Amino acid sequence: MKYAYYPGCSLEATAKEYNQSAKLVARHLGVDLWEIPDWSCCGATAAHNNNHLLSLALPARNLAIAEAEGLDVAVPCAACFNRLRAAEAAVREADGMRATISEIIGREYRGTNHTRAFLDIMVNEVGLEKIKEQVVKPLAGLKLAAYYGCLLVRPPKLTAFDDPEDPMTMDRLIGALGGEAVTWSYKTECCGGSLATARGDIGVRMIYQILRHAGDAGAEGVVTACPLCFLNLDMREGQAAAAHGDQLQLPIFYFTELMGLALGYAPKDLGLTTHFVNPLPLLEAKEILRHPATRRESA
Residue 287 burial (CB < 10 Å; 0-12/13-18/19+)? Predict the structure, then answer.
């Protein structure tokens, strides 16, 4: 099973642990990731607000490189996934757009390959049964809120792999890893994106509401597939709680980190030691780190 791999800008910077853990679990499960050479920014989040044609050409360039190799594209970042799918759809829907995009990017792009969310590939291509067979450190007793955010499953015309109002892909994955996915009503609510810096009063309130609802639902941690959602929730949890006179201690996880942990890899190899909200005390309390011998990344 081979895919062109598009990490995107965040996974080279603020979301390095997502990149690290995604590559590790892919290799473990037999998924060959061919990183697109000389990949470039997809334009999220600003391009589609400023120049529609540019917002399609930027992701199309990366898709064209993968298409020339005959490969579909695996994308961990929810925002990048959304933008690549938008370019793919635009080119398929109109011959004129295909010609225009190809001229702009200086190479042919026919829209014959497909963009896949990394979560979708893990659950629906690798499969939950195969993942369950590889679990050596079940996430037993760990209650988690699966947080999908705005862009992973919406708009459904573009994303097309889960229910846009009540997605369950990540919930089912949590179950396959031995954890418990709580039922809650904020799984697709917006985290505010860059509002946390542009309009802190609004953004911090949105972050707090997500975390408070997750805690009220019984979650002991939040799981996401979006670098910006992760950054907002992890980095600003203390600020959000203080602004509302509350105390919160909910670790935030990338789903790939939890996969790697259940597959037996060390927290350091998955980037779990770099979080603002330290997840290790929770994992130790649940005795998840005390299961059989831990694999090393080099294994």
Answer: exposed
Tokens of 26: 């892919």
Strands (E), 164-228: 180-181, 221-224
- Tens-digit pLDDT string for the chain (299 aa): 999 999 999 999 999 999 999 999 999 999 999 999 999 999 986 766 678 899 999 999 999 999 999 999 999 999 999 999 999 999 999 889 999 999 999 999 999 999 999 999 999 999 999 999 999 999 999 999 999 999 999 999 888 899 999 999 999 999 999 999 999 999 999 999 888 888 989 999 999 999 999 999 999 999 999 999 999 999 999 999 999 999 999 999 999 999 999 999 999 999 999 999 999 999 999 999 875 555 656 44
Query: What are the backbone angles phi and psi of residue 30, rounded to the nearest 5°?
Result: 80, 25
Q: Which two tokens stand for residue 266?
A: 């060390």
Q: How far, in Å, CA of 181 to CA of 257, rounded?
A: 16
